[in-house]
């Protein structure tokens, strides 16, 4: 694959997220185009494919991965399918950008990380797009420059206006808390050692059996603590707020001030970002553009990742799995992770970061 | 009058503002009590007097000023009555706190300033309460400490939700713009040399004949400029915002952030202060407490002012009068003021300020 | 005591807080004056007394309580002395405004609550001044009006720039967390059933042995949860932030926006309130004014409280005591409180509130 | 030119802005690539060209326009060169995206608008990138949805930290105020009829002869008024703030809140966007992407504009020219514009807007 040819991408799963990625690759970033589209629903695949006239429709995801004029794969299928499909990409030697989570159990994620390490070449990038968000990048820079002193405590808020009816308490951890888990690892630069999931009075707007909100406490290797409010039926908007408190000061992102209006009698205010695409659109664009560049630069034999990799996917999965146990047992659960050196002898000790 | 006896105050005019002053003197500050209440409406006087059982009701304002057990007078009568009543106080040798404006023409204010100067004793304080507001004080300190460098430009916004039906374009200048005129003199520390009143498209919510909003440009002695939006039928709330721009930076007060709510779907925001009593309650309390302390300290022969005085009242009146001419002629009008030394030979050149 | 005579107050303990109360009573509020000052340091008492010329100096606090021309007592002595002195006030039938905490163990507070209940007359008010702060009052109103729906979770931040060298981990709970405990009871209107004190990596600026920051989790009777960051060596400023999250939305106070400056190259921002007197000065004024009014209205036989009372002091003490055990054992501790009906048969079930 | 082939773009002028456009076209948007680079400095052209290996270097701008495999031209040359080069593009039938201003006198801009109208095909787009900025778009939507009622007054602030030494008072109008002129036409949807340039005390940081800050007043056809502070040696940061005040409320953009830090003792705040590329990077990306799409859709015979066109460039130039006269004469100057129908009989009366 020469540097001047566009990267040919298969997009697997074209729901809201996947369809947005198709549009992103074809219209909003450079250097890539979608050549294969795959979805469990042939109707949905055809609908999305209509706007991407060059793309071939392939029903079976594993066939889609194998298509010859596919250089790389973007996985936006349901979470439960990620592990097997990502592993297939690694086995086929094809770079893959896998939406979070990498797997819905720690074992599945670990197998991918191990297989990639055996190959000696980084092929798996995980879609933790906040690492590409300008506000998160600024917060990370502030911490790394030592302007907050040693970080000690972190406060996170993650609210969605609503979730689909089938969403249960465990899904909240695998799909929402997982972002805060990666943000913790990214911002604080160390692994998470324990997790406690607390259960405040549930909202009456949450479906039967859904524990919402949840209050999650993370503890890192060196003893820093993170509290997370995750509330997915808040009814208000999409709100993501992160505050890091260090020895020398604190910093917060996510106050969501943009246009401020003073129209209603006696009221001032603005609009809360309605959803994740609006809030993190720029981050998704940067993530996919940088992944495309990395894959093109990696060519057929080099590393193909510029962002969180398989180990980050595994680490998040291990913490989520412990979170599920905490949710079930009401206890603090210590996170059970294999030492990184047993997966990749050459790995740095700290969490992977964008280079 | 010994230092331990309460100051006996006559309150003239007990509409919204005057009644609030009665409550303030009797319940919210120390060292004073209301001994005389006067109002054109006997019914209103009785109503307010009921909550101030020690106070005597006196219908005629000039008799009220003359009552023997009145040490000082607080004037909250209609603006047009201020000049004559304040002059009566000066002539009776009684300290007076006069709500703004000191007079509704420059001549009336000048006469008071001259008469006071002849007495050689400061008795007249004008109710520019912003000089006692913590945010204004902080902005003033920042400027005086040189942290903005030389001030060059100032932006003011002054909005009321609504005004009484009889309010006309000139009243807006005498009652609302007058605050911005004093704020300019207070914050920038110099006199205003010219005023231009511009007439943007009027709001359809403004009564026939009321120019609203108005856009006012002030020019100071040294050439600094101030733009003022005054909009008294905004329908939204009471909003006062002031930004000073200097050679080394800018500073703004009045953003009105307090409680921030995120309740309505997709909206965040807060409540705009509903009116001037809520916004400047603390300032009124400080103003009256400090005036009471100054009058008690001044005793029967010393100065009885701790705040803007007669000259400040005159300066504001002169600028307002020029503003009215600008409103009528659509022209830039140079302000016509007598030199301060012709009124009071010992006066400092700069605008008076709280000591 | 007639309604027109000033309330005669003894102030016990005239450190920073007590001296400020002396100034408040004599200069900033109406209806009261300080007639007795008492302090362990005769020198300090004389110094503060110099500005309150009418006040008599009495060394022994119990003698000071007993002085005949003392109508009521304001306790600002060290925390450890509160319980015995407050009890002496109750036994002498004198109203007392006791700075928080009411006692430094739950038993001491309970004894006071019981003794007051036996008298059948409320004499004890506790200095939880946030209940008088306008922002807290607005947040309370919003909750009570149902605008947030049922409250589910609350986030609190309490930071001081620094503490005296002798401050230990338990003192942080009795002196700082106690405010959040009362704020929880005030805002959510129910008792706290369990407390967990977590220990994040301590700041290197904290003295040896001081666990700082602490992360505290409260659980209320109905299962609502509160997370509290308390960080008393933050080095930055005095920051108090409270967010309540309900079924229908959230609201936050304490963002501390006032004057916004843009002076340093590339930076905008404002000033953090330097300390509790600046942040809560208005609240202290309202608290003492309303207490004075309540005592004057209560006369010699009625209730003399307008604010948090002895039961509130006991409830806070019981939670603090449980917090100390959590700090020692690293465990979640259930709060051990006697039923309110065993103290006062007529009591409402919910926490006391200002009427 | 088929829809699937990339648009081949010549970039003329590769200073800061032009080089950024080269990078944008080749790396940040899709559907286009740079095939020709031209700059007065051969060295600079070579330097920028090194990162765009496919591009041919052509010294003469008119030759560059004429190169056969150039489908469209992006003009980022010095302002004085725009008119002649844009005209050459029109005459060659090549679509052009011309950085603002379209010309440095009204006549030059008018000639381009006339020539384009004769062709009967829209080829000229002007680089008023704010029309593509999300905050400006949201403000525009709010106005158009009637949520502010009829707009009456608008307040603009435009600050740069510094300007090159050669920048004079007129350049400030042609390069900075021109943005506010177009923002006024875009947001209020009507032409500007008069301009007054006021001269406050100049900053001592402004070079000899540079009037800075300037206070500019615009009046629209229907009498709305706009005040503009333009201050290009503010020393602080790049600050663009716009507030529209209507009959039913107001709205403001540009408060520049993102990451909020509390690190310095006693200070809270954030970072001001350092420059226009950081502030409006997203807007430039959208602008160029949409222009590329429009040119590709227009093919060889249709309109090739999706954004402000030649008439917008002319209108801005006419107001700027009047502004220069106001700057020279200290007077209010009425804007002299030819009726739009004399240029293009089919034109809508209102200002052009993105479709």
UniProtKB/TrEMBL annotation, chains A, B, C, D:
<comment type="subunit">
    <text>Homotetramer.</text>
</comment>
<dbReference type="GO" id="GO:0050112">
    <property type="term" value="F:inositol 2-dehydrogenase (NAD+) activity"/>
</dbReference>
<dbReference type="InterPro" id="IPR004104">
    <property type="entry name" value="Gfo/Idh/MocA-like_OxRdtase_C"/>
</dbReference>
<dbReference type="InterPro" id="IPR036291">
    <property type="entry name" value="NAD(P)-bd_dom_sf"/>
</dbReference>
<comment type="function">
    <text>Involved in the oxidation of myo-inositol (MI) to 2-keto-myo-inositol (2KMI or 2-inosose).</text>
</comment>
<keyword id="KW-0560">Oxidoreductase</keyword>
<dbReference type="GO" id="GO:0019310">
    <property type="term" value="P:inositol catabolic process"/>
</dbReference>
<protein>
    <recommendedName>
        <fullName>Inositol 2-dehydrogenase</fullName>
        <ecNumber>1.1.1.18</ecNumber>
    </recommendedName>
</protein>
<dbReference type="InterPro" id="IPR050424">
    <property type="entry name" value="Gfo-Idh-MocA_inositol_DH"/>
</dbReference>
<feature type="domain" description="Gfo/Idh/MocA-like oxidoreductase C-terminal">
    <location>
        <begin position="140"/>
        <end position="329"/>
    </location>
</feature>
<dbReference type="Pfam" id="PF02894">
    <property type="entry name" value="GFO_IDH_MocA_C"/>
</dbReference>
<dbReference type="InterPro" id="IPR023794">
    <property type="entry name" value="MI/DCI_dehydrogenase"/>
</dbReference>
<dbReference type="GO" id="GO:0000166">
    <property type="term" value="F:nucleotide binding"/>
</dbReference>
<dbReference type="Pfam" id="PF01408">
    <property type="entry name" value="GFO_IDH_MocA"/>
</dbReference>
<dbReference type="InterPro" id="IPR000683">
    <property type="entry name" value="Gfo/Idh/MocA-like_OxRdtase_N"/>
</dbReference>
<feature type="domain" description="Gfo/Idh/MocA-like oxidoreductase N-terminal">
    <location>
        <begin position="7"/>
        <end position="128"/>
    </location>
</feature>
<keyword id="KW-0520">NAD</keyword>
<comment type="similarity">
    <text>Belongs to the Gfo/Idh/MocA family.</text>
</comment>
